[in-house]
Amino acid sequence: MHWMITGISIPILVLLFQSRGLSLQDIGFVMAVWVGSTALLEVPLGGVADRYGRKTTYLLSLLVNIMGCCVLFYAAGLGPLLVAALFLGASRAIYSGTLDAWFYDSFQLCLVADSDNLGRTLTFHKAQAWVNISVTVGLAAGSVFGGWLPDYMASSGVEIASIYDANIAVVIAANIVLLAITLRLINEAGDQGHSVQAEFMCFRTSFGVITKAFSHAVIRRLMQTTIVYGAVLSSVETFWQPYLLGVMQHSAGTNVGVDNITAFGVIAGLYFFMSSLSSLCSIRLLTFVGGSHKTLLFATRLFSGAVLIMMANSSDTMSFSALYLLFFFCFTLGNSSQSVLINDNTEARHRSTMLSVSSLMVTSGAVCASLLFGVVSEHYGISLSWVMCGVGLMASSVLFVFMPEQRELATR
């Protein structure tokens, strides 16, 4: 449900920014503030989740998200949009690590309770793959709906300032429903204190986990490659909509406007379908490479970089769509393996914090990409930005070669 709501704004977000008069450089700046606010709050709020409780932290993130969407709904210029981006980035930072850590701990409890049966049939890698499928199905459903909604608003004759505003209004209402459902259905045991001393311990724990992340033989390489992963992800997600619009206009041979947002929603939905399919295929592929997570990560990141370079040179709608979907299929094949390596190399009491450190690396790369590639795309074209990203992704994949293959990992 969480990711379905997130998906509603994905097909139209950059188009909404452009409809409010923003250039590609302005959009890059807004996205830099968005992911930058996430980066600044990522790690300390990960520690808060470990100490004060994941349910409380997650509910707070929904409230902040609702506030950000309300600002976004009424924002008309760069300044208000930056404020909205600040709220939405903070919301992402607040819930980062809570859901994944919650699931991992619950999974381990299930193994202990039913070790004779569950342990023989389900590994965490397989379980994580199914979680990724649930996430991507939600994102796909939300994206298809989010692409259809503006077309429906345009054809229905409903009086609204922008056809994209309906998406934001639906996200606000859906988040309120999700907040109520979480309050009702989720129970979290444990008594968390809220003293000043406890807060200080949260920050100290966070910085201790950062130190471990960059000294641990396995996690250090994961964090280094995750920075590049975040930069590439941000560049593709930010600029695929204006790039596709340009391709569609070129194919039509005229300067047509955006009159079929449903197509953007369908492509976004298919992207998440490919990501879900890659989670299923990763189970078989991991077996094919002898259970080596680092080999899987190396091969998939290397190939996805090559596909991104080809995508940057696509000139018609069909070839772009095919390469876009192939890119994300390859790009996400190693996500379950990365999750396994991070969780298995992290103590349970620091798991939310370490996952937040990982998200910090993603957002740090995204901030750099938004600032750099916003300028590059505005003045030299989106294609050059994507070629640079593809080369960087292929180069960073080599780091996995130097990562030790640890099969017996101390996690308790």
From TrEMBL:
<dbReference type="InterPro" id="IPR005829">
    <property type="entry name" value="Sugar_transporter_CS"/>
</dbReference>
<dbReference type="Pfam" id="PF07690">
    <property type="entry name" value="MFS_1"/>
</dbReference>
<feature type="transmembrane region" description="Helical">
    <location>
        <begin position="56"/>
        <end position="75"/>
    </location>
</feature>
<feature type="transmembrane region" description="Helical">
    <location>
        <begin position="168"/>
        <end position="186"/>
    </location>
</feature>
<dbReference type="GO" id="GO:0016020">
    <property type="term" value="C:membrane"/>
</dbReference>
<feature type="transmembrane region" description="Helical">
    <location>
        <begin position="222"/>
        <end position="241"/>
    </location>
</feature>
<keyword id="KW-0472">Membrane</keyword>
<dbReference type="GO" id="GO:0022857">
    <property type="term" value="F:transmembrane transporter activity"/>
</dbReference>
<dbReference type="InterPro" id="IPR011701">
    <property type="entry name" value="MFS"/>
</dbReference>
<feature type="transmembrane region" description="Helical">
    <location>
        <begin position="31"/>
        <end position="49"/>
    </location>
</feature>
<feature type="transmembrane region" description="Helical">
    <location>
        <begin position="382"/>
        <end position="402"/>
    </location>
</feature>
<protein>
    <submittedName>
        <fullName>MFS transporter</fullName>
    </submittedName>
</protein>
<keyword id="KW-1133">Transmembrane helix</keyword>
<feature type="domain" description="Major facilitator superfamily (MFS) profile">
    <location>
        <begin position="1"/>
        <end position="407"/>
    </location>
</feature>
<keyword id="KW-0812">Transmembrane</keyword>
<feature type="transmembrane region" description="Helical">
    <location>
        <begin position="295"/>
        <end position="312"/>
    </location>
</feature>
<dbReference type="InterPro" id="IPR053160">
    <property type="entry name" value="MFS_DHA3_Transporter"/>
</dbReference>
<feature type="transmembrane region" description="Helical">
    <location>
        <begin position="318"/>
        <end position="342"/>
    </location>
</feature>
<feature type="transmembrane region" description="Helical">
    <location>
        <begin position="129"/>
        <end position="148"/>
    </location>
</feature>
<feature type="transmembrane region" description="Helical">
    <location>
        <begin position="261"/>
        <end position="283"/>
    </location>
</feature>
<feature type="transmembrane region" description="Helical">
    <location>
        <begin position="354"/>
        <end position="376"/>
    </location>
</feature>
<dbReference type="InterPro" id="IPR020846">
    <property type="entry name" value="MFS_dom"/>
</dbReference>
<dbReference type="InterPro" id="IPR036259">
    <property type="entry name" value="MFS_trans_sf"/>
</dbReference>
